[in-house]
């Protein structure tokens, strides 16, 4: 199961949960699952990039998640 | 990857656009004219905060030579919609109202109305005849005033975004908040043997590109719009302008001129929608060029900041706890780089317990834009100053202290994910063994060291590589070339095709001629667009091999490609003479037609690039003036494609950081008018201010890129603020926490 | 106000044009004559991007009125190369990667040429102070200074 981590900025939306394990094939299904579990969190997550196993994607709903994947949410980065 | 032997990558060819740039032939933003062209000018607000009650354009319209007048009310009214996160966020309503104010002016210099006329002088004169009635409001000019409970409010409908729990009650100037934490901060500090705590302040500073913003907009008879402009991203100008004007983006073609510097400041739009709207009204092309004063007053500098910082260590130098509370000025509209500032602040060290919060705060100053590693220099100024203080208190060598705590591959970044292969340790080791670190210091001199990092944005890129009949190639991408990226892209094509760099012509294509490409920014061009260039080149090679297979009557896998030639392989060796690219190219027509390789991709964000900088500073105790006497920038480039331009990035970013540390700042009067909107008083480093800037390129390959490339553009501005401040501490014994360390400030501090 | 008729010499060729009496030489060169190699960075004489030679003297053309050019000789970046043959400074700027965005480059080359005409063997410090009127925001000046010193050395060798 993919390990999904919530930084302290997201924890108010997860009722303080820091990590959950989800059996989901892709980022898209993970986001759907999270929106069901924690209504309202999707608004926050829309603004964020997803880090899967250390690689950061600004917008990648179809990125595959392995059973061992670690997922973090980070602010989107552009740069100068 | 590391075993790969490169033939062209890593060399220093002369850039293809170079001759045009040393002879004055290259066309920058203001160098374009269109037949029948009018000139646009803007009326700007004389107040930092006021409600617009009425705008009367009749007098301006009556001026001979005036062909169109435009007010903010005439642009489509957009709904607020925030897109994206940290510093990459965009609200098109804000962009539109920053181009032309609608109901309120939010900073001194905010554009209010525009005129197109037959000469620039008439346009400016007529713009000044537009009568605007204002209701003046109290301006909010600093962070503390902005977050005070009784602060005047810039935007009545501002909803804070991010980690705001609980939400502030009622209207607020706090537009957003992010937080990151790990471990138990209080317990961590309790465990520390030494704790240092300071409040750091920086002022707004400008990118300082030498070329002001400029554009020409022309409307064709079929309503197709062509915009020539100086920008870091033609597609951004196209899409943003379309949003602001509520047009179909397919109707806008953007031709990027050569760009005279950007550093993030040309990632947004100011003039283009106004020029398009004026051109539509006047039915003639309109050219708009900003003055330097307009650039300072009304384009996007980067945030002034307050960073309250606390760091604790054990006696052996092990960092155990950190705490940061940060406030970043967004300027008139939300969207400061507080987020990445927070992400980078502790990025260089293993700190088991920390808490970081960062606020995005609106104030009545120009809306900030990206500036090279947005947000990171200010937060890193705080943390690297504190690491230096801890090393002093503990009697540790500042490099050893940093090496002791440095992050490695597999460590968790403060913003969550674990680092892949990174080169911080290598840059610190290179600094330790560099002759600079051992050189004796003179009287009144101090040495400072600081580390820093920045991400490399991935994002979307496209590239076409097409072959000429003589076997030379053209590579077209959508990224304006700010600092030698054409040369680097040609080198990558050369590496894949096996032809000399001079046989590759790199082209910056307009938005109708190449697939969508994100901006030149985020240290992404050599990394992400480079990846597309390599893929497109490999596509060409595959096609060339297929042509050779066809000629030889063999299977594709019996053809290898080496040094610009097809060679028989896989058992076919010796059966055929090698076919050089020139010959295959000549036969393209009869072997299947022209050869064009294509690639489009969305790259993930590249692994971060780390740097360590060394700075020797000499202070004149009589005047407080200081001078950098020696400087060394060491940075992990992954793989340097054109080392000359990689060094150039290190040197240029260092110089900008030195200016930020020592002299540069926006100075506002009490009404919010910038008092130093020119290069005489906004003092950027000149040649006589600086020494040679030594560089060391460390190469820890980036596994995400076929050659191991990391972007290098932004990281170099992250360490200098603290490197200079740490050197100042050494030279004067005073810890400076407020930038810039200008002579009066230094004199006052050392006399105290 | 009637326009002023200006007869002058630009890059060795006679030129005439009409301009407003208040027009800057920079505007006349760029807008009137299409010599856009001379760049506008500030119009206050602070950045050096518009550097030209006026009767052998280095000036920011934004601070010169176009009518002041009457009867005088102007050299711009367009006149620095001889046909297809680059001036050693231009060549060395390319070899040293002494330009990034390139917008300040014409001004630097005109200013550096003026330096080498009066001092063929400048020290690094003399070069830095001479070029202190030209702003570059991309390079940190390192490679520019090296390119100028290298060009000076090559020019000395060529005339030795």
Short description:
Chain B has 752 residues and is an alpha+beta fold. The longest helix of chain B has 28 residues, at 525-552. Chain C has a five-stranded mixed beta sheet with strand order 2-1-5-3-4, sandwiched between helices.
Give the secondary structure arrangement, pairings included.
The complex is a heterotrimer of chains A (80), B (752) and C (160).
Chain A: E1 2-5, E2 19-22, H1 27-37, H2 41-46, E3 48-52, E4 55-57, E5 70-75
Parallel strand pairs in A: 1-5
Antiparallel strand pairs in A: 1-2, 3-4, 3-5
Chain B: H1 18-23, E1 38-44, E2 50-56, H2 58-61, E3 66-71, E4 82-83, E5 90-91, H3 92-99, E6 104-105, E7 111-117, H4 120-128, E8 131-136, H5 143-147, E9 161-162, E10 174-182, H6 185-191, E11 194-202, E12 214-219, E13 225-229, H7 234-245, E14 252-256, H8 272-282, E15 286-289, H9 292-298, E16 305-313, E17 319-331, H10 338-345, E18 353-362, H11 376-394, H12 398-405, H13 424-432, H14 435-438, E19 445-456, E20 459-467, E21 473-477, H15 485-497, E22 504-508, H16 525-552, E23 559-562, E24 565-568, E25 579-580, H17 581-586, H18 588-591, E26 596-603, E27 606-619, E28 626-636, H19 643-662, E29 693-698, H20 720-732, H21 743-751
Parallel strand pairs in B: 1-15, 9-10, 13-14, 17-18, 21-22, 28-29
Antiparallel strand pairs in B: 1-7, 2-6, 2-8, 3-7, 4-5, 10-18, 11-16, 12-13, 12-15, 16-17, 19-27, 20-21, 20-26, 23-24, 24-25, 27-28
Chain C: E1 4-10, E2 13-19, H1 25-32, E3 51-54, E4 57-60, E5 73-75, H2 88-95, H3 105-118, H4 124-130, H5 142-159
Parallel strand pairs in C: 1-5
Antiparallel strand pairs in C: 1-2, 3-4, 3-5
Describe this protein's structure:
The complex is a heterotrimer of chains A (80), B (752) and C (160). Chain A is of the alpha+beta class and 80 residues long. Chain A has a single domain, classed as Beta-grasp domain (Ubiquitin-like (UB roll), Roll), CATH 3.10.20. Helix content of chain A is 21%, strand content 28%. Chain A is built from 2 helices and 5 strands, in the order ββααβββ. Chain A has helices at residues 27-37, 41-46, and strands spanning 2-5, 19-22, 48-52, 55-57, 70-75. A 5-stranded mixed beta sheet of chain A has the order 2-1-5-3-4. In chain A, strand 3 (48-52) and strand 4 form a beta hairpin. The longest helix of chain A has 11 residues, at 27-37. With 752 residues, chain B is α+β, with helices and mostly antiparallel strands. Chain B has 3 domains: 18-26 and 458-603, 2-Layer Sandwich (Aldehyde Oxidoreductase, domain 4), CATH 3.30.365; 32-137 and 211-260 and 266-298, Aldehyde Oxidoreductase, domain 3; 305-457 and 605-751, 2-Layer Sandwich (Aldehyde Oxidoreductase, domain 4). Helices cover 28% and strands 25% of the residues of chain B. In chain B, strand 20 (459-467) and strand 21 form a beta hairpin. The model of chain B has no long low-confidence stretch (mean pLDDT 96). Chain C is α+β, with helices and mostly antiparallel strands. Chain C has 2 domains: 4-79, Roll (Ubiquitin-like (UB roll)), CATH 3.10.20.30; 88-159, DNA polymerase, domain 1, CATH 1.10.150.120. Helix content of chain C is 34%, strand content 16%. Chain C has 5 helices and 5 strands, in the order ββαβββαααα. Chain C has helices at 25-32, 88-95, 105-118, 124-130, 142-159; strands at 4-10, 13-19, 51-54, 57-60, 73-75. Chain C has a 5-stranded mixed beta sheet with strand order 2-1-5-3-4, with helices on both faces. The mean pLDDT of chain C is 97. Classes of the chains: A alpha+beta (80), B alpha+beta (752), C alpha+beta (160). Chains B and C meet through helix 1 and helix 19 of B and helix 2, helix 3, helix 4 and helix 5 of C.
